[in-house]
Design brief:
By secondary structure, the protein is mainly beta. It is built from two helices and eleven strands. Strands 1, 4, 5, 6, 7, 8, 9, 10 and 11 form a nine-stranded antiparallel β-sheet that branches. Strand 2 (45-46) and strand 3 (51-52) form a beta hairpin. The chain is elongated, with a radius of gyration of 23 Å. It starts with a helix and ends with a strand.
Amino acid sequence: MKKFVILSLFAIGLQYYSYGQRSMTRPDKIGIGVGPSFLYGDNTGIMSDFKFKILPAASLDYTRYIDTHFDIRATMGWQMIGSGDFYTEGLIRGIANEGYPHAFDGHLVYADVMPIYILNPDRRGFLPSLIKFYGGLGLGIFHAIRDDEIRTYQGDTFTTEIIRANNTGVYFPLRIGAYLDVPELNGEIGLEGNLLVSPFANMEGNSKQQKLVKPDIAVQLQVYYRIYLW
């Protein structure tokens, strides 16, 4: 019995090591990710009190091997965006007096390309890492489509107008993640945090500075499955 257990463990270890040796060059892969998100903007809630809407996001990506530490990745994604209902009447009036929407609902579509740096890649002659960590910074373009809600005050009364609006702009995606190889699925599963930073264009249609940093930022946490293209 003892010999059987030892041989079984040895066989499992040999299989894992052989898979690691096979994947030294990391295959190209296609991935899908889903998870929660929120938008850091000027009319998206009260961030200091953690009052903002958590909404879904999803993405598709293609990753191509470059060398031991680097991959290149192209990503297309979608994020639902909305303001919620967190502002007092005084804050809403202040935003309205500037001519900006205090509330909105819509979605964000985006596409970007970035190099990915693998912190602990598999290397020949070394045991493969069970969990691999990576990060990257890239360049992309987004398009936001919204129904903006704008108030016009006349004394103590007001009228509300819903306006279909959109914005397009450049953003810088920052991604940090970790993944685990799953040979049985011919792929990997992982967890990834994303910051889509837009320093030049509004994602939410409001330029009244009410947050600590100027750029709008789409924040995402996604669970991924990526299938290998051997």
